Amino acid sequence: MFVPFQTLPTVKAFDVEPFKIGEDTYLAVAIYYGRGSHIYKWDGERFVKFQDIPAVGADVELFKMNGTTYLAITGINGSVFYTEVTN
Ligand SMILES: [Ca+2]
After folding, report:
1. Which parts of the chain register pLDDT below 50?
2. How far, in Å, CA of 38 to CA of 16, rounded?
3. d(Cα 64, Cα 69) in Å, to the nearest integer?
4. 46-61, pLDDT tens digit by residue?
């Protein structure tokens, strides 16, 4: 059984993908109509906005190659790929 936990203020979101980098948990939300998509990060109690991604799309996927996380958003004007930047 599931009960409502948190509402994220997205408009026309088409896809959501959870992922982890190290011990941190994130949600990538693909927005199909709008200015861009979003990444939220778990702060221990809830998901908070972490980054705006200037790409719109209907699907988002995360994958790892050689220890680096990549994010792909399939869009109406092309598919965009981002790579994790580590400090
Ligand atoms: Ca997806």
Report:
1. none
2. 10
3. 4
4. 999 999 999 999 999 9
Identify whether 20 is part of a domain.
Answer: yes
Which pLDDT value is given to residue 78?
Answer: 79
Residue 19: exposure state from Cβ atoms within 10 A (0-12, 13-18, ≥19): middle
What's the 33 CA to ligand 1 centre distance in angstroms?
A: 16
Is residue 3, in this structure, part of any structural domain at all? no
Q: Which domain holds residue 26?
A: 13-84
Give me ligand 1 centre to Cα 73, in Å: 9
Which pairing describes strands 37-42 and 47-53: parallel, antiparallel, or unpaired? antiparallel
Task: State in Å: Cα 44 to ligand 1 middle.
Answer: 24
76 DSSP assignment: B
Residues with CB under 5 A from ligand 1 (ion): 15, 17, 59, 61
